[in-house]
Amino acid sequence: MTTTSTTTPQVFDNYLNHTKGIRSWLFTLDHKRIGVMYLICVLSAFLLAGIFAMMIRFQLLTPEGTFMTQDQYNQAFTVHGAIMVFLVIIPAVPAALGNFVLPIMLGAKDVAFPKLNLFSWWLWVFGLIFFLIALGVGGIDTGWTFYTPYSIDKASSMGGVIPALIGTFILGFSSIFTGMNFIVTIHRLRPKGMTWFRMPLFLWATYATAIIQVLATPVIGITLLLLVIERTVGIGIFDPAMGGDPVLYQHFFWFYSHPAVYIMILPAMGVVSELIAVHSHRHIFGYKFIAYSSIAIAMFGFLVWGHHMFTSGQSPLMNVIFSIITFSVSIPSAVKIFNWLATLYKGSISLNTPMIYGLSFIFIFSIGGLTGLHLATLATDVHLHDSYFVVAHFHYVMMGSALIGFLGGIHHWWPKMIGKMYNENWGRISAILVFIGFNVAFFSQFMMGSKGMPRRYATYTEMPEFQIYHIWSTAGSTILALGFVICAVYLLHSVFKGKRAPANPWGGRSLEWQCSSPPPWDNFAEQPEVGDCYDFSVLEWNETEQGYDWRKDVAHPGE
Amino acid sequence: MPHTDSTHHDDQIGHIVPVKFLVLICALLLFLTAVTVWVSRYDFTEINIAEMGIITALFVATVKATIVGLYFMHLRWDRPFIGFIFVGSILFVVLFICIALTDSLAYQPTIIKGDTPKVTEAMDLLKH
Amino acid sequence: MFSILTSLLATTSQGAPANFWLPKQASTVAESVDLTFFVITWICYFFFFAITGSMVLFMIKYRRKGHEVVADGPTHNTPLEIAWTVLPLLLVVVIFVVGMRGYLNLQEAPEGSYEVQVTGQKWSWTFDHPKYGATQVAELTVPVHTPVRLLMTSNDVLHSVWIPDFRVKMDLVPGRYTSLWFEATAVGNYNLNCAEYCGKDHSKMFATVRVVPKDEFEPIMIKLASEYEDMSVGELPAYAINRLYNRCQSCHSLDGTTGTGPSFKGLWTRVKSGDVVFTTGERLSDLYGENTTYEVPENYIRTSIVNPQEHIVQGYLGSMPSFQGQLKDKQITAMIEMFKHLDELTDDEGNITVNPDGAPRQ
């Protein structure tokens, strides 16, 4: 380790200090600042929803569940789900990381529509405000899925439903505009030399995600609007007492919400492609297959929504069709895993914090994806639907995979975003605690689900044999929470006291590693030309900087 | 900001639709809306085609959507490819509606007929 | 093919007890469902260990040794990539076919199945046996080794019948009939859970499926059907508290605790004296007397059961569903008698102290 002092700030002009004052942040058009604001917001919402999660876990420690009342528990899981899905995981990688990284990866000065970008962020804020209003005005206890007729029955469900629906509607637009922005940016602002198949895989993933965002999100918008109208005016579209069809709501809802889960996972997979390649210093294996698989997942994802409705009274014919197509979605995901493993083969693997998150992703996503097979299969899904098995499956893919991909991305691009290095040892400890805590918390849920424990149960007095699984699950959650707390602490610490970061600490080849850490206000003076972004042979280690540099004997592309 | 296209077609960025024209289109759409509302109240049993109301309403809706797409969404003056993208997204709508309808048709026999108390209530209110 | 697989995976033999993943098998379809489950699970084990094993192996073998090393490995291998796309595809087709067979089995109830009509409502289950005219609440008695078909609907919101030991599940949709069928293979009691979130007491919406020997079934049903019809007024309270109270249980306690609805303890005293205030501000006592709403207190109770929204007691939200059509007149009379004699039927903690036939409970 070098002893040249890198803690005395040699502050050069960068996007963080280019202008000062809260207004220059809240009304900025700079994609980097918008990305940082999103990051802060998303992580705060994560904390809030995480607190509800811990409340849920404490309630379930005993079969009688005396920590909360039934009503409070129902609110807790509803709010936990709604905030996590709409305010945290859907925006996480695209908006918080994508906004920051995408234009720089393209060597561009900004996204195609910077004002729309700012507007997207403000819409997120308004969405949050409506959720908080919903909590204040009666609360919501319908489940994040807002199934009818319960959600239109004013006598039984709580009064915060309409503000929550409006908030979600607004968040939908935040997502749509971000998607639109990214599609145009990737189409139009690519630099010289960056053909489609020269793009970093993170951009392929973001592009596929953006397509889903633009195509699918309007459907949830309409659905929620219909639900609001049904609840206020009673038009009778979902209410059977008016001749409506409650199962139709489920079709509407899941037509968006299934592609939504691919919005959550695809960008995280894009991050993992970058992590694995950079931190094993090896050209990604099977670039084209990974790129195509992102598009395939996006397309197939639109055809499988009925697998959430196998026991809802959906006709057996439809069940069979949806089941077959659902299996087809598993193949592109499997292909990615194999490609990542092949990238590790003959690599030079550095087990630093981002890599640990990347490897955790592979482990956890394998389990999550494989248990999806049990749920895609009709005979077993009849038994497993609405049990803890499903809860475990989606936490494995949404939290253990999407969120861990997000954390990996944060750690990978933290030096670039903030200009400081975090404490690597604490980073590793935290990543390992998150990994262990997560698996303990959620693996036990697979077992109790298949054994008969239903989900959304505040108490389980008739089934005390499940208590041991719940105890394991709560213990795991506590370890997980500890991991997150440690992560927050050292990341915050690094903002103020971290070592100055070099431009390229990890030896990445994509364009964002060729500007300073943090980047200057306008990213690049001119758009640079690019070569193969996974060819690391052009880099060499610079001991004084503690980072990687372009080799002096190799020309930059275009020179 | 990035490269600008040096070729010049009349479907490039730069074609501005006159405000008067847009207002005209808006007025047309409002008129068609009025037609839809009138049709919903008119009793068509005289012509012996009871579904005439629905057929007219759907037809008018299609016309309106086409007008919105062509003029408000600028497709009339855009490259054909943009139109393909728009039509492509309609495919998703068709997919969704087909599957949802196929499903609900399949379970029609299991619906409990006449179990719609609120409808009866509403019809009573309308009659008085 | 099935039998080969069964013998290989011995955990799935008929009537198998609970194991690491699944509860005991107690129905005819459970065997094929479990077989499917284990086929998938073993495929998962294989892939999981292959993936994780390779990952750990590579982590160790290809550990970075210094800053200068740049790795040099293959960037693509088309035959390999095609292979690992096509082979999993074939595998999932196999899984799909195995799963579909089990599923189609679950759909078609055999001819001549014994029919039970199920009504779910917030938050209790009612099982009607049309063949015998008997009704059960929170408990479903069925004969063993007999196909049983449940024809189900909901009175209010979505519910779902899940009997884990039978591996069956189907949602109850208001305004529509849904159905499921099973054939129990062993005498015993099994849990029936509500598996679709339906509001406050979703976690308490239980029933027990009692599977009895074939020859015992019919006598039980006949007894149930006429249980209260021949009863004298004095026998009704014991019957009501054992057979009817179940459907009130989730909202109305017996020990004085206020729940979604008022406790039944001391209810009759309050109602008799009219000492109840409604959300409209009216007092119940004002509604008593000749030529007014309720001539006698019993009429108020009757109305509260069949039309609970008529008068809502202050301090409550009025979420009680109507029991119109679900309780015969004599059963409502039984409820009223139960209220009148509640002190003799329960102890201070709200535990029921008599059996349906009136004998004291141990």
The shape of chain C is elongated
Give the % helix of chain C.
25-40%
Structural class of chain A: mainly alpha
Task: Output the CATH homologous superfamily of the largest domain in chain C.
Answer: Cupredoxins -  blue copper proteins
Helix/strand order of chain C: HHHEEEEEEEEEEHHHHHH
Q: Stretches of chain C where pLDDT falls below 50 for ≥5 residues? A: none
- CATH topology assignment of the largest domain in chain C: Immunoglobulin-like
> Which sheet architecture does the biggest sheet of chain A show?
2 strands, antiparallel
Which parts of chain A are unreliable, with pLDDT below 50 for 5 consecutive residues or more? 1-8
Strand content of chain C: 15-25%
CATH architecture identity of chain A: Up-down Bundle
Summarize the structure.
Chain A is an all-alpha fold and 559 residues long. Chain A has helices at residues 22-26, 31-59, 70-105, 114-136, 161-188, 201-232, 246-279, 287-300, 316-344, 353-376, 378-384, 388-418, 424-451, 467-497; strands spanning 420-421, 499-500, 539-542, 547-550.
Question: What report would you give on this structure?
Answer:
The complex is a heterotrimer of chains A (559), B (128) and C (362). Chain A has one domain: Up-down Bundle (Cytochrome C Oxidase, Chain A). Helix content of chain A is 63%, strand content 2%. Chain A has 14 helices and four strands. A two-stranded antiparallel sheet of chain A has the order 1-2. In chain A, a hairpin with a 4-residue loop joins strand 3 (539-542) and strand 4 (547-550). Mean pLDDT of chain A is 92; it is low at 1-8. Chain B is mostly helical. Chain B has two domains: 1-78, no CATH class; 83-128, no CATH class. Chain B has four helices and no strands. Mean pLDDT of chain B is 79; it is low at 1-11. With 362 residues, chain C is of the alpha+beta class. Chain C has three domains: 2-61 and 78-107, no CATH class; 114-226, Cupredoxins -  blue copper proteins (Immunoglobulin-like, Sandwich), CATH 2.60.40; 233-345, Orthogonal Bundle (Cytochrome Bc1 Complex, Chain D, domain 2). Helix content of chain C is 34%, strand content 17%. Chain C has nine helices and ten strands. Chain C has helices at 2-8, 30-61, 78-107, 214-225, 236-244, 267-273, 297-306, 329-340, 342-345; strands spanning 114-121, 124-129, 134-137, 139-143, 147-154, 159-163, 168-172, 178-183, 188-194, 206-212. A five-stranded mixed β-sheet of chain C has the order 3-2-1-5-8. The radius of gyration of chain C is 28 Å and the shape is elongated. Chain C starts with a helix and ends in a 17-residue tail after the last helix. In chain C, 37% of the residues are buried. The model of chain C has no long low-confidence stretch (mean pLDDT 86). Chains A and C meet through helix 3, helix 8, helix 9, helix 10 and helix 11 of A and helix 2, helix 3, strand 7 and strand 9 of C.
